[in-house]
């Protein structure tokens, strides 16, 4: 059995260090490319849901983005300010509104997606298809292991 001194924390010897470091670098690159388009990484779950599902209620967007209602309300407020979402009245419930992507968001979304794909491809440069699949499987397992107590 190793003593406490022998088991001292060595961050660079832990996969968690490299996962965090890679994630931070990816986010920095993503943000740099998305900002000129008025997008941000925080907006992507909402943009993706509205792009795939069409107009949604705020509560449904919160479920898709895995965030609480107050967080979603603040996010929607910023996205409205940036001209990325528009509100549409609910046909039967006067208190509810549907949110959808604005023309601006729809026109810029293809460039945003292209930028994200280019950065992700750059991050995986030199990996074979098998290595990419293995890494994806390992990271999915890490997430599942940590979601148990979430």
General description of the model:
This protein is mainly α. The protein has a single domain, classed as Winged helix-like DNA-binding domain superfamily/Winged helix DNA-binding domain (Arc Repressor Mutant, subunit A). Helix content is 61%, strand content 8%. It has a three-stranded antiparallel β-sheet with strand order 1-3-2. A hairpin with a 7-residue loop joins strand 2 (85-89) and strand 3 (97-101). Helix 1 runs antiparallel to helix 5. The longest helix has 21 residues, at 103-123. It is globular. The two termini are 32 Å apart. The model has no long low-confidence stretch (mean pLDDT 93).
Annotation keywords:
single chain, 150 residues, mainly alpha, Arc Repressor Mutant, subunit A, 8% strand
Write a compact overview of the structure shown.
This protein has 150 residues and is mainly alpha-helical.
């Amino acid at each position: 059995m190793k003593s406490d001194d022998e088991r001292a924390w060595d961050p660079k010897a832990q996969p968690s260090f490299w996962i965090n470091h890679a994630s931070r670098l990816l986010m920095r690159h993503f943000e740099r490319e998305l900002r000129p388009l008025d997008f941000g990484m925080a907006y992507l779950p909402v943009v993706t849901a509205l792009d795939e599902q069409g107009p949604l209620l705020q509560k449904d967007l919160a479920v898709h983005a895995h965030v609480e209602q107050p967080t979603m309300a603040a996010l929607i407020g910023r996205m409205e300010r940036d001209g990325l979402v528009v509100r549409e009245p609910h046909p039967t419930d006067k208190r509810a509104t549907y949110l959808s992507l604005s023309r601006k968001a729809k026109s810029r979304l293809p460039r945003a997606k292209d930028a994200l794909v280019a950065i992700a491809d750059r991050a995986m440069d030199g990996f074979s298809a098998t290595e990419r699949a293995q890494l994806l499987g390992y990271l999915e397992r890490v997430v599942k292991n940590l979601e148990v107590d979430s």
